[in-house]
Amino acid sequence: MNISQNEYSNMVDKVSPKSKVFKNCINAFAVGGFICVIGQALTDTYQYALGMDIQNARCLTSISLIFLSALFTALSWYDNIAKFAGAGTLVPITGFANAVVSPAMEFRSEGYIGGLAAKMFVIAGPVIVYGTVASVIYGIIFFMLK
């Protein structure tokens, strides 16, 4: 059977499920916003209930969100939330923690060194490398302009 590119494209369009862009955006906004609300609630709790200064409260909030994200990933809850929320779970700190823990959990059967430790940064590694290189380049440019 020999079909043209245009005919193939039409066939694919007919059988492909239609994307629910508006619903997906609402879900992403709601879940991402909820994660941020949890972060703000933690900061306020640490600051006002525990009497911490704002800098320490924010630091502990980051640690708490990373821990919760890693825990939810290990319990396979984060995947279910991500299926519902899509990009809403990519709130930077929780999404990054998930990106580190997911491969570690997937390859843990290969052992602690060869599996868990070696595969932990499969997804997040390039982000760390390029982020570090970019920050060095920006720092050099900033230094030269000053």
Question: How is this structure best described in words?
Answer:
This protein is mainly α and 146 residues long. The chain has one domain (21-145). It has helices at residues 5-15, 21-49, 54-74, 77-85, 92-106, 112-119, 124-145. The longest helix is centred in the first third of the chain and has 29 residues, at 21-49. The chain is extended. The mean pLDDT is 86.
User: Count of DSSP helices?
Assistant: 7
**Structural category:** mainly alpha
Distance between the amino and carboxyl termini: 66 Å
Q: pLDDT average, as an integer?
A: 86
* Rg on CA atoms, Å: 21 Å
Unreliable residue stretches: none
Helix content: over 70%
Q: What's the domain count?
A: 1
Q: Can you summarize the main beta sheet? A: none
Number of E-state strands: 0
Q: Beta-strand level of the residues, as a percent range?
A: under 5%
The topology string of helices and strands comes to HHHHHHH
- The dominant shape is extended
List the helices and strands and how they pair.
Elements: H1 5-15, H2 21-49, H3 54-74, H4 77-85, H5 92-106, H6 112-119, H7 124-145
Helix pairs in contact: 2-3, 3-5, 5-6
Q: What are the defining features of this structure?
A:
146 residues; mainly alpha
Summarize it.
Helices cover 79% and strands 0% of the residues. The chain has 7 helices and no strands.
